[in-house]
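Hi, here's the filled form for the chain we discussed.

Project: internal
Contact: R.S.
Residues: 438
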Amino acid sequence: MSDKKITNVSRLSLADASKALASGDCSSAELVQSCLNKIQLNEDEINAFTNVNGCEALEEARISDSRRKSGSTLSELDGIPIAVKDNIDVMRQPTTNGLNMSWLPKKDADLIKNLRSMGLIILGKTNMHEAALGATTDNPHHGKTFNPKVKDATPGGSSGGSGAAVSADFCIAAIGTDTMGSVRVPAAYCGIVGFKPTRGFWSTEGVMPLSTTLDTVGPLTKTVGDAGLLCGHAISKVNLKTETFAVLGNFEKAPTEKVIVNSFSALKELLRETGINLAECLLADYEPTPARRAGLIICEVEAYSVMENLLMSNPSAFSVELKKFLAFGSELSEPKYLENLMKIENFKAQLCNVFDDFSFILSPTTPQTAFPFSQTAPVDQADFTALANFAGCPAISIPMLVGPNRPPVGLQIMAPPGKDAELLSVAAALEQLINEYQ
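And the returned structure, exactly as it came back:
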């Protein structure tokens, strides 16, 4: 144990919290209490949570501290508090899926069982866009979640509560779901890391579906290394000069906010100055906006299939806007659904062909930065992120170079399916390069 106790321990990364617990610089109870204090102080202005389970979290922290004293910790993450999106079942905590209703799950989602087996503590459930079908977390039943880094602005969505909770230091890390960018968009807007693993890496059993074709569960963290810790992937040292990187010309031509264009241009220049080669690749006939619309059609059809019984039995739990989306999905013909499904399969095949020549694809995460709730939400928030869901490949958003007094900007890195560990290692190296430059 060091002589100096750590203050404001809720600000720690997952890796640093693990080290602090191991060295005795803080206890799990102190870590949890610090997060609860931060929530009490700032939750009214952020509204990141639908439920905070403080009493149980503190009891679990005390049990974790006892395990540590007896030398029987469950993992290096034992005793660390995290938050979970409110479409993932956690026993003794209500699930709402962002709707105007709730239910108490009889068992934990498979992912939660796995996290508990490592000793992680579920601090609470986070606010989300209604039914995960949207990217602002302007929830008609549970209120708006506000971006801790950009005044009066959206944190993105649909995992906006998870992104805001990590960005505001309400928890050490959080779990979200990503159907067309719902982990990476909040990460980009809130200035944190959001990782979408290869589809199927984490089980979705016990997660309320939006699209059974596109849904993926992923972490939101303060560093790339933290994402690796939660996913069980060690970060390896890599030589960026020996890796093959490409930028996607289809994204380069898309309308993009100037601060993002400038940040991405500065990053590409930094990479070239460092001796890292960048090439350009193209997907034939791929236009981000129509492609994203094809994905939205899949979501609407599959969401109606999943939620039809709930909608019939409890229509007041659904907003008028969500009912319109689901009505569209219910009325779409099977041939039209299959046509859009085939489009997505074609995009996947094309991207996998690109990965035959390049190991990693770089792009901005979003075409815009976090925008105020007073502004009409742009329809293209997921235009750069949807492709990774179509292909089922891993993708990560990390903070990019920005000037002073600028909103956060995300850098997206995609890799071939199954190359999660390699992606995280390269992302960590890029994160370090960006941090050293800044």
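Let me know if anything looks off before we file it.
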